[in-house]
Write a structure and sequence with these properties.
Blueprint lengths: L1 E4 L12 E3 L7 H5 L3 E4 L3 E5 L3 H21 L15 E6 L2 H8 L7 E4 L4 E5 L5 H19 L7 H10 L5 H13 L6 H6 L12 E6 L5 E6 L1 H22 L2 H12 L4 H8 L7 H14 L1
Parallel strand pairs: 1-9, 2-6, 4-5, 5-7
Antiparallel strand pairs: 3-4, 6-7, 8-9
Helix pairs in contact: 2-4, 4-5, 5-8, 6-8, 9-10
Length: about 290
């Protein structure tokens, strides 16, 4: 067994600086405010202040809608996010107004309610158009597809959302390749066991299982930040592999099987019967993909 001491490589993918909705905000109080409105094919944009940013959001959202649905192989039937089923995007005029109205922490740049299909941010939020908006939209589209009842691993949900941030894909591939070459990747089995909600609550070093390029078992010694960054990098790399290397059609089939109640390995066997029948084969094929990058 090889013991691997991992240096933090500073790849902060992860936190898209968005939070989940609190019931105290996502309610009637929002509707009662004095909002202006832009209506698109699939979105209601509610905003305060100047029109330009709201129109940019509306245009970008429609582009992302088509691209994300295509990437996921989502069946875009006629009633999907149309008429009263449109997604609502609320845009406050500045960060202070957003924080005051939502009660979010000061680091937050946006929030989303996946069940109510609502996204909230503020005008000219850093990275909103290029990063946070497609990220949260991907969560919404993905959850529309798979629902909330199936066995959906966190890495799949978060990987889909990060993959939607198209501008970051070259960086993601470079860093995933770097981690692979340095034998700094978690095993997928270990990712499945990891409870990220407990990570970082104590000041400690996390000891996690890994595999080297040659297939030897290894051990990683990671800080909380290193562990979270590694997890999220692997999540988006795995989803990128499934979509890019094996195709959107099969990926949609995989997600559909999860939605319909199959366990993860059953869904893999159904969608990828000739290549991936369990987590070990998923890791093997993913590592081949990283080798080719």
């Amino acid at each position: 067994m090889r013991i691997l001491f991992v240096l933090f490589m500073g790849f902060a993918l992860l936190y898209s600086q968005a939070s989940f909705a609190q019931d105290s905000f996502f309610g009637e109080s929002k509707v009662q405010e004095d909002w202006k409105e832009v209506v698109g094919d699939h979105f209601f944009i509610y905003y305060k202040g100047e029109d330009r940013f709201a129109k940019d959001v509306s245009a970008k959202a429609e582009v992302y809608y088509g691209r994300i649905a295509t990437d996921l192989g989502y069946p875009r039937y006629s009633e999907f996010w149309t008429w009263d089923k449109r997604v609502k995007i609320y845009i406050y005029p500045n960060h202070e107004a957003f924080i005051k109205a939502t009660g979010q922490p000061r680091w937050s740049q946006g929030m989303a309610d996946f069940r109510k299909k609502e996204i909230v941010s503020y005008a000219w939020s850093k990275g909103f158009l290029e990063s946070l908006l497609p990220h949260e939209m991907a969560h919404l589209i993905f959850r529309d597809f798979v629902g909330f009842k199936g066995e959906i691993p966190l890495w799949l949900d978060e990987g889909v959302a990060q993959w939607a941030e198209e501008a970051r894909r070259p960086q993601i591939k470079r860093k995933a390749k770097e981690y692979y070459e340095k034998d700094c990747l978690l095993s997928i089995q270990d990712m499945m066991k990891l409870d990220l909600d407990t990570v970082g609550k104590t000041d400690r070093i996390y000891i996690r299982s890994s595999r080297t390029k040659t297939g030897e078992p290894g051990v990683l010694f990671l800080s909380a930040d290193e562990l979270i960054n590694t997890y999220y990098l692997q999540a988006v790399s795995l989803v990128g592999f499934l979509i890019e290397a094996l195709g959107s059609y099969s990926f949609a089939d995989f997600c559909r099987q999860l939605r319909d109640g199959k366990r993860l390995e059953e869904a893999l066997r159904f969608a990828y019967p000739m290549k991936i029948r369990n987590l070990q084969e998923l890791e093997k094929e993913w590592r081949k993909y990283l080798e080719r990058l």
